[in-house]
Amino acid sequence: MFDKFHEECGVFAIYGHPEAAKLTYLGLYALQHRGQESAGICTSDGTEVHCVKSMGHVAEIFTPLVIDTLPGEQAIGHTRYSTAGDTALLNAQPFSVACNKGRIAVAHNGNITNASELRRDLERQGSIFQSNSDTEVILHLVAHSRERTLSGALRDALLQLDGAFSLVFLAEDRVIVARDPRGFRPLAAGQMEFSGGRIAHVFASETCAFDLIGAVYLNEVEPGEMIIVGPEGVTRERYAPEQSRAQCVFEHVYFSRPDSIVFERSVQQSREMLGRLLAREAPADADLVVPVPDSGVAAAIGFAAESGLPFRHGLIRNHYVGRTFIEPSQVIRDFGVKLKLNPVRHLLEGKRVVLVDDSIVRGTTSRKIVRMVRQAGAREVHLRISCPPTVSPCFYGVDTPTKNELIGANNTVEEIRRFVEADSLAYLSLASLRKAVSDDRRHEYCYACYTGDYPTELVNIEELMAAKKRG
Ligand code: AMP
């Protein structure tokens, strides 16, 4: 039984570079937006695997002294998302074990939806689990496999998994990466040339990690593909039969950085198109387009370009909000939102404002922001959301709450408008969302959070729902 989902994460891997730990640190630094709760790096020097993981941000954990304790030319790394309640170091990744296949470590982005069943079977056979994370199941399946090679055992293990997984593995002398057959979560492959023309192989959740270390993006790890990089070279193989894809559309709507290429497509380009199509579907008679930073910026640029209205930064975000701030002893209204955002009265006073954001989840933050813009003098606030209403929880690795808490699941658009106190509210249609991300036969997306139509069978849906609730 799993206490909770580990939700959104970033993964990174490198093979064949003398500064593997340092480059992994930089890669994780670029992927920090994918997870701020904990981070970890495991390296291998050919004979031994070394690991450091801790709660906190990448730059806090990996000081030069700590990086010096991670020798070797191959490494994997992980950043894990902060979710309420569970902050156990026990669940921080990578997981590392010594088993009959040698010493292996793994880092995972996604959710394995049949993890509870697999875990029950494994426990019946004597496995002892150290964490309540679904990722540990993979290592036990590898250890139980009758296959003698690590790649054979991995193939065996991966074929038993349902759901979403972009995985990076580290063994004594190799790095192996794999993606689930539907390709829910991204995983990019690249390489970097260094001293004397040597080539290092790199893998990351998003290509922004490659940009920072000067690596070039080559292509995606294909859904259902496993790539093995070892002393013998690079082997790419399909371990699972081809299935229709279910790429997470929310990566393009909100989660990935706009400077990344995700699912072979520029995130910035998708977001601007979301904004353009939103302006066509739901124009507003207004004076200004203002984004909710940072999530609404790219869509607001598209909205402004399409509508011909001026784009202005009417809300300023403080980027340095940490987890340790001194809260006021007296109750200050809307303190949390004020800490993060402040309106520019000079821009907003007397204006009819189109406020653009990527999504409304519970509605509470959006209501505070609408109030903030109005209190700063805006005459009208027209809220525009660059995707359809979020109506169903995600079981594939995005941190959405249960259906009960999703305002879009239980209210009409007009009811939501009244709740958030906007003069008008419009969401983008599903058809336009598909168009903006260029959904086609090669690149099909998962829209389950907007449709409730899950692309895989969820055999234990009640258990998955209960885990969400605890999350
Ligand atoms: P609320 O109005 O309380 O539903 O909050 C909406 C805000 O939450 C928007 O600015 C979104 O960008 C942001 N948001 C949407 N989905 C997520 C997510 N999975 N994790 C964190 N923030 C999110």
Question: How are the SSEs ordered, and which strands pair?
Answer:
Layout: E1 9-15, H1 20-30, E2 38-44, E3 49-55, H2 58-61, H3 64-67, E4 74-80, E5 95-99, E6 102-109, H4 115-124, H5 135-144, H6 150-158, E7 166-170, E8 175-179, E9 188-194, E10 198-204, H7 208-213, E11 216-220, E12 225-230, E13 233-238, E14 247-248, H8 249-255, E15 261-262, E16 265-266, H9 267-281, E17 288-291, H10 297-307, E18 315-317, H11 335-340, E19 341-343, H12 345-348, E20 352-357, H13 364-375, E21 380-385, H14 407-410, H15 413-420, E22 424-427, H16 430-436, E23 445-446, H17 448-451, H18 461-470
Parallel strand pairs: 14-23, 17-20, 20-21, 21-22
Antiparallel strand pairs: 1-4, 1-10, 2-3, 2-4, 5-6, 6-7, 7-8, 8-12, 9-10, 9-11, 12-13, 15-16, 18-19
Helix pairs in contact: 4-5, 5-6, 9-10
Main attributes?
18 helices; globular; alpha+beta; seven-stranded antiparallel β-sheet; 471 residues; six-stranded antiparallel β-sheet; Glutamine Phosphoribosylpyrophosphate, subunit 1, domain 1; binds adenosine monophosphate; disordered N terminus; 2 domains; Rossmann fold
Q: What small molecules does the structure contain? A: adenosine monophosphate
Q: Averaged pLDDT, please?
A: 93
Integer tally of domains? 2
| Global outline | globular
Task: State the share of residues found in helices, binned by percent.
Answer: 25-40%
Determine the N-to-C terminus distance.
13 Å
* CATH H-tier superfamily of the largest domain: Aminohydrolase, N-terminal nucleophile (Ntn) domain
